[in-house]
Design brief:
It is built from six helices and five strands. By secondary structure, the chain is an alpha+beta fold. It has one domain: Gcn5-related N-acetyltransferase (GNAT) (Aminopeptidase). The longest helix has 15 residues. It is globular, with a radius of gyration of 15 Å. The mean pLDDT is 93.
Length: 148
């Protein structure tokens, strides 16, 4: 079942974010969690353009994603949806959960009137890239980042 994340889900959420090799380098999955995660959750939770969603099964968070809506003047004042932080617990991969989460996000973006849904993926994640392409996403732009 897909539902909006709750603060009490944070330990499981950060655990999922830290589960892969890239996440292990950037997340701090210690107990107790650093306050920064709680602060970020509150900002996300109170922003009407943010949807931090989890897939819950038998009371456990086994998947997550964040869907953000950004209003634009381009495309005649439309908005676009950005999907980030997509994770499925390693023992639940290959069961179609990621696809179901994406289909939910795509339908939500359409319902909210977005003209597109976009994502970025790290070039170090070739399996993720193939998954997104299978869902119909196309590499149409060159992405760039400046880390601070």
């Amino acid at each position: 079942m897909i539902r909006k994340a709750k603060e009490e889900d944070l330990i499981e959420i950060v655990g999922l974010l830290a589960q892969d090799p890239l996440g292990q380098l950037r997340e701090n999955n210690t107990s107790p969690l650093p306050q920064s995660y709680k602060d970020a959750f509150q900002k996300i939770n109170h922003d009407p353009n943010q949807y931090l969603m989890v897939w819950e099964e038998n009371g456990e968070v086994i998947g997550l994603f964040q869907l953000t809506f950004t209003p634009y003047l381009t495309y005649q004042g439309s908005s676009r949806a950005q999907i980030e932080g997509v994770r499925v617990r390693s023992d639940k991969r290959g069961m179609g959960l990621g696809e179901k989460m994406f289909l939910w996000a795509i339908e939500k973006a359409k319902k909210e009137g977005a003209h597109l849904i976009q994502l970025t993926t790290d070039k170090k994640r070739p399996d993720a890239l193939r998954f997104y392409e299978k869902l119909g996403f196309k590499a149409s732009h060159e992405g760039m980042k400046l880390h601070f």
